[in-house]
Amino acid sequence: MKLIAFGMRKDEVGFAEEWAQANQIDVEITGDLLTTDTINQAKGFDGIIALQTIPYDDALFSEMQKMSIKVLSVRNVGVDNIDLVAAKKHNIMVTNVPAYSPNAIAEFSVTQLMQLLRKTPEFNLKLKANDYRWAPNISRELRSLTVGVIGTGRIGRVAMDIYKGFGAKVIAYDLHPKPELKEAGLYADSLDDLFEQADVITLHAPATKENEHMLNRDTFAKMKQNVLIVNTARGTLINTEDLIDALKSGQVGGAALDTYEFENPIFNHDLSHVDIEDPLFNELLGMTNVILTPHIAFYTETAVKNMVEIAFNSAQQFLTTGAVETEVK
Ligand code: COI
Q1: Which CATH superfamily is domain 102-292 in?
Q2: How far is the C-alpha of 252 from the C-alpha of 223, rounded, in Å?
Q3: ipTM > 0.90, yes or no
Q4: What is the CATH number of domain 2-100+301-321?
């Protein structure tokens, strides 16, 4: 069996080499992302391991089929950038890593909320201007707030536990409620009910066609004045233009965005010598009550190790047994 891993960063290479050594399997590693321009590097391999936020489309799967590649194992959890219908059509098994570290993302989202709440960006700006006054940047305490968690999968549930630890009132919404959370009375009656009650809304849902722009002009209007928004899930969950308007009007009091609707050309690229030509992004960058981070909630040693090992294990398992529990259905 021969595997090739695309889009490998330096911090992943060691884990991949250890895996190859331990399993005595030929592994080729490249930093290139998987596109129709780079796919030819996969000739002669049985499986591809990849991680990227750009699309895996029909053309790519068609090339894989021509090369007799059997499996694409992605090193991450989200699969919204994968054309699964095309994968099936071209007979390519797709696997993901459903739980590399829910804590990594949940902890980060809470961290970002704490920064918004305690006005860290504002105080940092004041500090740079030699202004050490407290007012007017007074804070609220989490124990006095209601946190609305949208999406109660693995990550959302860890976030709920952390917020409960802070003494916040936690309510949740999920299209598919979990029985144990339902029994504990943790779900709001509806999404609108959550919007009405929550002082903070934190997103932990996957991106689907149905929930695209679930936070928009109309839904912001249903929320409490000054609500805080945290998004470590997917940028497409929020209509960015509407968010900017809601931030300007004060309907939304602040936003911590680790994912952004149009992030692909920006996040995880060195743009230090380039002007970013994205007016929405530039507007967000200039807002003192917005914290932007480049899709780093996942980025911990534990998560990266698991992402690499589980993705390689999945490819190996599928190629040796013809089935794998991490198959994306
Ligand atoms: C995911 O695992 O889906 C993430 O959002 C992490 C990122 C590296 C794509």
Answers
A1: NAD(P)-binding Rossmann-like Domain (3.40.50.720)
A2: 8
A3: yes
A4: 3.40.50.720
